[in-house]
Amino acid sequence: MKIVMQERTPMTRFHLSLLISGMVATALLASCAPPKPRTDGEATSTYRPAASPSGVPATGGAADAVNPEILSREAWRYTTAEGEILRTTHYRIYTTTEDKIIRERMALFQEYALAHYRSAVTTLPAPTTKLDTYLMNNRPQWERITKQLMGPQAEGLLKIPRGGYASRGFGVFYDIGLFDTLAIAGHEGWHQFTQKTFKETLPVWLEEGLATYMEGHRWEQNVPVFRPWANVQRFDQLRKAQGEGKLMSLEELLSSRPQDFLDFTDGRVLTFYAQLWALAHFLSEGENGKYATGLRQVVTDAAEGCLSETIASRLGDRAGSMLATRNGPAIFLAYFNSDLDSAVSEFARFMDSLTQTGARGPIVDGRSPMAQGGQ
């Protein structure tokens, strides 16, 4: 099970995952343009690599062709641990893990995950510099390198009992088993990507919602296939909270931060992330795709640096708080629905449908439970 938390510093925001990421916010204005249309005609993306003429999975749709190969290796020594540096097209992986399977799969996984990030919502540019990942063999190594990389910010990160984090475009993980390690990398990889490529940051609820949206995947013929609905852990937490009457309203989700729930021991932070996962799906395909264009536009505007300009032009004085804190409903009002009460009702209906009896089967299969028959 995963928990994602968030802490703020005056200059940096980083995300913490228990099963964490940092972005330096910039506000560069650019000429806003309409989002590029989807090329797959689907409301929800499934990133499935196709086979190249050589039979090696090499491409997957809207993003550029994927090169899953490790391009180079070199020895790397961290304190007394022998490791290596693996270079792929977009990543540089410093690793001391002794598990060869995790080491090799991390390199493969991150390249395919990046292609998914770039095509799941709208077409996004590739990072222009390498994204650095540190995959350590054990927790003591992870703690030591965290202190070196994060300085005073390390204190909060070291409280994480089991997990990893990302900051300023690099990810720092340690071996906690194949599935859990890669699950963290899937979530945090989205943060690494936006930190390095987006000119403006998304609000907390949307940045984290999309990170959970990017988690779902399964392995087919030794290749990761990304399916946003394939996230049983998030769904089970959602169903549990629904059964206990602990689901949050849309207004609460838009105005809350992960750290708001850290003093509670009743799983509220898990429910918060599960509902953000549901919210990302709602914006992608809810109400017969009513909000899909807005989702593409807001992601495009954040990437291109005209998010603040758009919010200010559409909301006027009401935009001030959002522009200062990257929290609250301003972006939802500007890009999705200016009638928040109406959206609250729509999201509540979506949540009722999502948690209905029989919905888990499609989730296990990585299919949408919202369409007839879960297809």
Structure described in brief:
With 375 residues, this protein is α+β, with helices and mostly antiparallel strands. It has helices at residues 100-117, 139-150, 154-157, 178-197, 204-213, 232-243, 250-255, 268-289, 292-304, 307-315, 320-325, 330-335, 340-354, 360-365; strands at residues 3-8, 13-18, 50-51, 57-59, 72-78, 81-87, 91-95, 131-136, 164-167, 170-174, 217-220, 223-226.
How would you describe this protein?
The chain is of the alpha+beta class. The protein has two domains: 3-226, no CATH class; 232-369, no CATH class. The protein has helices at residues 100-117, 139-150, 154-157, 178-197, 204-213, 232-243, 250-255, 268-289, 292-304, 307-315, 320-325, 330-335, 340-354, 360-365, and strands at 3-8, 13-18, 50-51, 57-59, 72-78, 81-87, 91-95, 131-136, 164-167, 170-174, 217-220, 223-226. It has an eight-stranded mixed beta sheet, sandwiched between helices. It is globular and about 60 Å long. It starts with a strand and ends in a 10-residue tail after the last helix.
Q: What fraction, in percent, of the residue positions are helical? A: 40-55%
Strand/helix succession = EEEEEEEHEHHEEHHEEHHHHHHHHH
Low-confidence stretches: 1-13, 18-31, 35-44, 50-63
Q: How would you characterize the largest beta sheet?
A: 8 strands, mixed
How many strands in all? 12
